[in-house]
Amino acid sequence: MKLPYFLIVSCALSALSAHSSEFITGQITKKGESFYISNSGENYRLESTPLILKSIPSLYAPVYVKQSNHIPYTYEFKGERSGQTFKLEQVPTNVPGPDVLKGVLKYDKKTKRYEIDGKEARFGYTKILNGYQFDEISKNSMIGKDLLVEGFFDQDGVFVMQALTPRGLFSATKASHYKNAKKLVLDLMPKNVNSQGKKPFRTTLFEGKGQGVEKGDHALIITMSGRQGDSFGSVNGHFVAGLATVKEDLSLRGEVSNAYVTNGKDILSGNTSLTNYFSHLVQGQNIYRPTYTLIAYGIDEAKLKQFRDALEASHIEFRTKELEITGQFNCTTETVKALANAGIKGQYKQLMNSLTGVLTAPLRILGDNGETINYALANDPSRYQPRPAFESFFRAFMLEHTRQELGIKRVDYVFYPQIASNRPVGGTALNTIWQVNKYKKLYEKYEENKETALSVKELRVKLEELLPEIE
Questions:
Q1: Of 119, 340, 353, 463, which is most buried by a Cβ count within 10 Å?
Q2: Structural domain containing residue 118
Q3: C-alpha to C-alpha distances, 118 to 106, 113, 131, 416, nearest whole angstrom
Q4: 342 shares a domain with 207
Q5: 227, 188, 191, 224: which is closest to 439 by C-alpha?
């Protein structure tokens, strides 16, 4: 069958477009009304769709969150160069720096120098938060480990390490199969003895027969950060989702779409690379607490892009407004809604919560607190709270009809422990909002009287006393 000329041209252009996409890193600059990528002394004017360009101003100059070292954020841009113009295909991704090294981190005690992949290296900037930071314990814990390290080369040619992740942890390489997935995720890992473990691991929860993961496959990432060991206010944890593509060596080009309110961790709401999200010396979740992650391979790229795009309006709002977390608007609600927009859903309880919502509607007259209580009673916690949301997607991925519907060929589980430091170790997040409120009140009471109530040392002791109750 002979194809019409316009279809031949269309197919050729599509193929050209697919092969001409590239990734470059740099910072966003502005001249007049136009935005540019500043990359190794070169500048490319940004062009894209109105929807994508709408995000650029708040990435260029976020209102409330900036990096503690006063350097603008670095981004990865996907698109096509044409002369001094770069045509963006998607909203940029926040990265730790433009350069990547892989290998075992070495330290020479005589010269007091670090080295990785044959290059001299040093640790980048960090930040004290709640009295703790990425410290000497943290640095020593990295020595001798095989790592994926991102950062940049300084003017002396020394590699500045800004994010360090165990190499192969977030990867599509073959992992051992855990036979009882439900027991592992729902029963064993929430226990403190496991959720506070010190050894990272990745295991396969499901793999279809004859369905090996290959180069070019796409994956959905669902990840929950646990509670911190240094703060009453973190017991609810954090929830995000993201996407990844399997590279030729089976490593992942991955990111998460991180919905985050104004914070002291330099975390900018938006799309952020896996290394930046988990391991950045300031922004990384694992600097503060352990993380628990599902990777579902085989999901259609179009669905993942639809999810990514659906969350961007919320990111802009998070970046331009000083918001507080509420039951109705938080990391979980916005992520779950964006996933649902792409047809990706967890297991939710429907009818009972709807009926409860009708009965509790009068609570709204009590103001914000009444509105929150009504929302909590009227909705499944899987729609607004991190741990129930994480577990609801796990349950969904264990169902054959969900896997068939989404094309899932394999599901991996990754445990990444809190990075060693003087900071108390956290653990899994609470699983009911009523428990969260209990600890929130305790936290607020401490905040009101912290000058006279508890020293940092006493607070640490008190938090450690609470940990066995949280499972």
A1: 463
A2: 99-166
A3: 9, 12, 34, 27
A4: yes
A5: 227
Residue 225 has pLDDT above 80, yes or no: yes
Angle CA 121–202–231, to nearest 5: 70
Mean pLDDT over each residue of the chain, to the nearest integer: 87
In sequence order, which residues have a C-beta less than 8 Å from that of residue 124 and are 6 or more positions away? 151, 160, 161, 162, 281
Helices and strands in the chain, H and E counts: 17, 19
d(CA 430, CA 448): 23
Structural domains counted in the chain = 3
- In this prediction, residues 187-199 reach a mean pLDDT of 93
> What distance in Å separates the CA atoms of residue 200 and residue 321, rounded to the nearest whole number?
36
pLDDT reading at 128 higher than 90: yes
**Is residue 7, in this structure, part of any structural domain at all?**
no
Average pLDDT over residues 11-21: 46
In a domain, 308, yes or no: yes
> What is the average pLDDT across 232-247?
92
8 Å CB contact between 229 and 417: no
Burial class of residue 184, CB neighbours in 10 A (0-12, 13-18, 19+):
middle
What is the identity of the amino acid at 327? G
SS3 string, 324-366, reads CCCCCCCHHHHHHHHHHHCCCCCCCCCHHHHHHHHHHHHHHHH
Domain shared by 153 and 251, yes or no: no
